[in-house]
Structure formats: C-alpha cells, structure tokens
Amino acid sequence: MKKWVLIFAVLTCVTLPLAGQVRTEGQTLLFQPEENRTQMQAGFRMREEDDAYLPAEGKGLLQGEFRAHSRHSLDSIHRVEGHASYERGVKRAVNWNTSSDWDLLAPYITLDTVGGDLQKEQYRFAARFASRPGRFFYSLWADYRALHEYRNVDPRPRNITADLQVSAQGGLQMGAYALSLEAGYRRYHQSEDVEFMDPRGNNTSVLHYLGFGRYSTRFSGAKKNTAVRFNGNGFTARLVLEPVNGLGWMGGASYTWLQVVRHLPGNNETPITQLLNQELSLYGGHKWALAYLRADAQLRLKAGTENIVDQTSAFNVLAGLPMLQALSWKASISGFRSWEGERATWTLQPRLSYTGSSWQNRQPEAGMTFHYAQAVAMGSAAFRAGEWRFRVAGEAGARLCVTSRRNLDALPMDSRFQAYFDHLYGRWADHALHGGVRATIGRKVGKTLFLYIRPEVAYGQALKEGHHRWDGLFAIGLDF
Questions:
Q1: Is-above-0.85 flag for pTM?
Q2: Do the strands 136-150 and 116-131 form a parallel or antiparallel pair, or are they unpaired?
Q3: What are 166-190's pLDDT values in tens digits?
Q4: Cβ(338)–Cβ(361) under 8 Å?
Q5: If we measure between CA atoms, which residue out of 450, 367, 358 comes closest to residue 408?
Q6: How far apart are alpha carbons 195 and 217 in whole angstroms?
Q7: Cis check: omega of the bond before 364, within 30 degrees of 0
Q8: For 327-372, what is each residue's pLDDT tens digit?
Q9: Which of 49, 99, 145, 378 is in Cβ range 3.0-4.6 Å of 109 for a Cys bridge?
C-alpha cells in the first residue's frame, strides 16, 4: 500500500526541471543512476528587448514561476518520475498575434494591428512509470499542459489551451546496450475568442491570417467572426539505442506528425485552414566517463492548406488549396569534457551548428530564406567549502547570417504588412553575439536537505542594427 501511495504522490506533486522540456533523448529512466531525489524551485524570470526580434511573442516578459522534479526508485526494477510547473506573468507589447502557441500554429493564427500586453498563466504536469522485468523493459508517460492567455484592453483575446501527450515505450536489453521503441499520441485544443468591450475602441479588424500579408477577407472582421477553435491530433515514434551503464555508443531517431485544423464556431464550425507539422530528428555519438561527442540533425516541415468554402449557410468545404510550405533544418555537433580536481570540477561544452529556414507561398510564388552558422562555448566550475556549494557557469556565442533572400513583390500588401515584413527581414538577416553567466550558491541545512539560490543573466547584441536583449532569472530552491 505504501508503494502505491508513493507512486501517486510522485505522479501528482512534482515539477518540471526545464521549461518546455520533459525528457531527454537517450536517457531512459531505468538506465539513469539509481537515486531518490526531489528538486523544488521558485523564481522570477524577465526578458527585455529594445525592439522585438519576434513581435508575435512581444518585446518583454515578466513572470513568476514554480518548478519541481522528482525521481524515485521504488525497488530494483520499478522507477517513477514526475514533473510539475506553474507560470504566471505578462508578455509585454505583443503585436501581430492574438493566438497562443505561435510557434506551433503560425502562420495560421488570429491577429490584429493594435496589440498590447498579454497576461499568461500556465500549468504543466508530467509523469513516467518504468519497470524492467528481466531483459525486457517498458515505461508509460503522460504530459498535460493548460495555458490561459488574455488581454484587458480592446481587442481582448481570451485563449484557453489544453495540450495532452501520452506514450508507451518498450525495449530489450542486449548485453551492454538497450534498444527501445516509443509510440505516443498528442491531442491539442485551443479556444480563442476576441471581444470589444468599449464601442469607441472597436476600430480595428480581427484577421484570420494566412501568411505573407494575406488573410481571409470573407471571415475577418470586428464583430461576427472573432471566435476560433484550433483542433489538433498527432503521433510520435521514437527509436533509441543506448548503453546500459551510460558509457558507449548512443543513437536514435524520432518522427512527429501533428495536424491542426482552424475552425470558426460561429459559422457552423467551418474549417478554414489546415496546418500539418512534421519533424524528423536524428542523433548519434559516444559517451566516455568524463566526456561525450554527439552529432544531431533535425528537419521540420510545415504544410498549409486553405479551404474553399461555399456561399451557403451550411459553409460546406468544396476543396483545399495547398498554399504554404515552411522548411527548417539544423545540423550540429557538440562535445563535453569535465575535469575533476581535489577542490573543484571544471567542464567545457562547445557546439557548432548550421541552421536554415525557408518560408514559401505557392500561389503567387513568394517567400523568405535564411541560413545561419552558429558557434557556442559553455563552461562551468563547481567547488565546495565546508557545508557550502558553489557553481559558476558562463556561455558565449555568435551567429552569422550566411545568406538571406526575400521575394515578396508578387504579393499585394497593405502598407502595415509591408513595414512588418521589412522589420522581420532586417532583424532575421542580422548577425548577433550573445553571452551569459549563471551561478548556484547553496548550503547543506540538514542531513539530506540542500538550500540554494540561483541568479542568471544573459545579454544579446545584434551587430548591424544594434538592437539588444536582456534575459534574467532569480530563483530559490530546495534539493533533497
């Protein structure tokens, strides 16, 4: 009975260690070091830009957050892991977007040209149960995210998002290595309603955006068609080869497929657009006792279809036109090396990558393309003095825009859209430098209890246009 009480507590009460990330490729729970450990952290996060690199995400963020993570070995063959997080804050000066999860849904979003601060509240819970009866092992995983974003001035979006992912993993241990296959399902839903509370402020249209300055002229407006429902279904398949003791060769591949349909509830649930997101990821490398070398490759494809809707009150879909194709890719190689001395442990982690993105409108032909070369070096030093523990880490990097092209002449645009794309092209075609430092200062206050504070600060500078960005975090936490 006590074991199942512990399982329930871990699965429902613990937190997420990294924002937006619940698990790591090639780190099967059963093959991680056996330990019972819980981390809890509360803090304040900020972001400040003089000019938004991505106006749809705003030029600033003020956010309080709580995160926790727990991992427990119930016995020699059963383990559980749980995560939870809570975020409450405001995204400042969000423009050209009123929908949540811009990265997932763009360009088939809702927008207005007024913008403003967007309030944000998000919960997230995740859990995994794993078992190894003999050479065979398996695990079950679930992740649920609830997001509410809204604005208190006209036009007032109110977005409610529910995002559920579940998966099952099965594998076989073959000597020093383990091979596993994981299959998952994702259910995504976002309801969005834009309201005008003050008639004097009803001076802008809510646009159902189609990309590259185009929008649905039939359904866009300020009064009638401002409610939207995004409905998505998808799956994931993941294959992983990894060393059982953590040392040796590793590799894996994953594929995700997610289709999101945009409906208009006020017009008989008319599906006006469909967006297909696909992603293929590959990685491989080798781990040693104090080092690793790893190569990664990622390909992401977005394909957008616009539906032709008849003129009857039934709003029947007559056909779908494939109008959008967005392709992005990334190839990188990274390494890690640590040195353990009598008083301190030092680490160095360099990474080189080449990335690119191409957004294309098919009819008429138009688009933008960017290629980047990036180099990042990270290092840290950790040492102890009595009951005190200290860790200081730094990062420095550079991004070089190798090529950039745009061809938007075939698209007739409103002058505001033209200015918007001029802004995006100038920012995205720029070179940039960034650097940051973070520290952890803690003290052992009990037999197994560790109390710490964690300040972080980072700065980025665009080289051509001179724009800059600050990021910061201050957190206090417990580790036991």
A1: yes
A2: antiparallel
A3: 999 999 999 899 999 999 999 999 9
A4: no
A5: 367
A6: 19
A7: yes
A8: 999 999 999 999 998 889 999 999 999 999 999 999 899 999 999 9
A9: 99
* Of 212-221, 431-440, 449-458, the least confident: 212-221
Q: Give the residue among 257, 211, 31, 254 at the shortest CA–CA distance from 107.
A: 211
Please list, in sequence order, all residues whose beta carbon lies within 8 angstroms of the beta carbon of residue 365, skipping any fewer than 6 positions away: 407, 410
Name the token pair of 89: 């804050």
C-alpha to C-alpha distance for 68 and 83, rounded to whole angstroms: 6
Give the strand pairing for 450-462 and 432-444: antiparallel
Buried b (16+ CB within 10 A) or exposed e, 373-391: ebebebebebeeeeeebeb
Q: What are φ and ψ of residue 38, in 5° steps?
A: -135, 135
196 HSE (CA, 13 A, CB side): 17
Which tokens go with 304? 């957008």
Is the pLDDT at 323 greater than 80? The verdict is yes
Q: Is 180 exposed, middle or buried (0-12, 13-18, 19+ CB in 10 A)?
A: buried
C-alpha closest to that of 233 among 287, 173, 166: 166
User: What is the 3-class SS of the chain, one letter each residue?
Assistant: CHHHHHHHHHHHHCCCCECCECCCCCCCHHHCCCCCEEEEEEEEEEEEECCCCCHHHCCEEEEEEEEEEEEEECCCCEEEEEEEEEEEEEEEEECCCCCCCHHHHCCCCEECCCCEEEEEEEEEEEEEEEECCCCEEEEEEEEEEEEEEECCCCCEEEEEEEEEEEEEEEEEEECCEEEEEEEEEEEEEEEEEEECCCHHHCCCCEEEEEECCEECCCCCECCCCCEEEEEEEEEEEEEEEEECCCCEEEEEEEEEEEEEEEEEHHHCCEEEEEEEEEEEEEEEEEECCCEEEEEEEEEEEEEEEEEEECCCCCCCEEEEEEEEEEEEEEEEEEEEEEEECCCEEEEEEEEEEEEEEEEEECCCCEEEEEEEEEEEEEEEEEEEECCEEEEEEEEEEEEEEEEEEEECCCCCCCHHHHHHHHHHHHHHCCCEEEEEEEEEEEEECCCCCEEEEEEEEEEEEECCCCCEEEEEEEEEEEEC
Residue 58 and residue 178: Cα distance in Å, rounded? 44
CA dist 391 → 243, 351, 456 (Å) = 29, 21, 12
- Angstrom distance (rounded) from CA 129 to CA 142: 9
Q: 209 vs 55, 250, 365, 449, CA distance in Å?
A: 15, 43, 18, 52
